[in-house]
Prior knowledge:
Elements: H1 21-29, H2 33-42, H3 48-57, H4 61-74, H5 79-94, H6 98-112, H7 115-130, E1 134-138, E2 141-144, E3 149-153, E4 156-162, E5 169-172, H8 173-178, E6 184-186, E7 190-191, E8 197-198, E9 201-211, E10 214-224, E11 240-242, H9 244-250, E12 252-256, E13 261-264, E14 278-281, E15 284-291, E16 294-300, E17 308-309, H10 311-316, H11 318-322, E18 325-333, E19 336-344, E20 348-352, E21 355-359, E22 363-365, E23 375-377, H12 379-382, E24 388-391, E25 396-399
Helix pairs in contact: 2-3, 3-4, 3-5, 4-5, 5-6, 6-7
Amino acid sequence: xxxxxxxxxxxxxxxxxxxxxxxxxxxxxxxxxxxxxxxxxxxxxxxxxxxxxxxxxxxxxxxxxxxxxxxxxxxxxxxxxxxxxxxxxxxxxxxxxxxxxxxxxxxxxxxxxxxxxxxxxxxxxxxxxxxxxxxxxxxxxxxxxxxxxxxxxxxxxxxxxxxxxxxxxxxxxxxxxxxxxxxxxxxxxxxxxxxxxxxxxxxxxxxxxxxxxxxxxxxxxxxxxxxxxxxxxxxxxxxxxxxxxxxxxxxxxxxxxxxxxxxxxxxxxxxxxxxxxxxxxxxxxxxxxxxxxxxxxxxxxxxxxxxxxxxxxxxxxxxxxxxxxxxxxxxxxxxxxxxxxxxxxxxxxxxxxxxxxxxxxxxxxxxxxxxxxxxxxxxxxxxxxxxxxxxxxxxxxxxx
Length: 400
């Protein structure tokens, strides 16, 4: 269970089609999600687990439930069944279905005594006890987001950024106090962007949350000590980030960074060109991109200021990295600052979301690789677009 706390704002591709279950299994194990999707779409006969995996990647909730649950029943103690439980728990969690997510966490413990599931259990119990996130109303809306999304929590206004890299929403202790939220501590261990482990954290439940035409009930927040980064220098009332479950409830988000304008809701989906470049790995949205024609995959992280490039990037583009300059790069997070070996590159052009964007001095982290992807796509790339569109129904990222 890859419960992730993103306090500030990680796949390579295989063949287009697979002929044997062994080839499909290798794609799952290597996190070749886009290749698996394409292979399953072109196969007339494919195992129920692989079909369900792709449905989970694409957030097709009802079909994924049907096929992955069948894969579990077929062989409850198999590797496929273990993977299916993990996929189901993460899919349900990112959609705010915490009771279903808890069921699969508990099932994983009963079937395999999973250490990851046991670690996640305490937090999922708290989320489930409060109830699933409930959409009271969703109306397409346009809001001013220069200083963050204007949000009303339990009748009190705050302004928070939005973080696609956050498995759950987060806020600082001062905001939780100001909002009158009760805290409950859980012992779930996590780690954050600097690599520092977090032994546990507090959880608060916002019973009522409104952003424009979106009205939600029972939204959990991870509550962090705000005498540390990233909130220590941020005014009270702005010490928070809206995470993936709330963004999923919006269906699609359009953001104009320069204008400070955000739109969300069904109407944002009208003009999609069909890029199909977005999938989910666990609780992480993953984007297909390229550099010099080489296919790459990145975690989409609107909570991160900078784009991080990981060892997978260096493997895909060895000549580019070989020409760079070795250095040490500090990574600052909630737990402090850690230094990692890296390579400083010259200008690199990324093809992302239908647009070419350039990073003049990107860093390839050669000793920091928390995830499974070639990098972490941050706002230094995303802000170069006039408009950023994240469509969780069409499963695409567009930069316009």
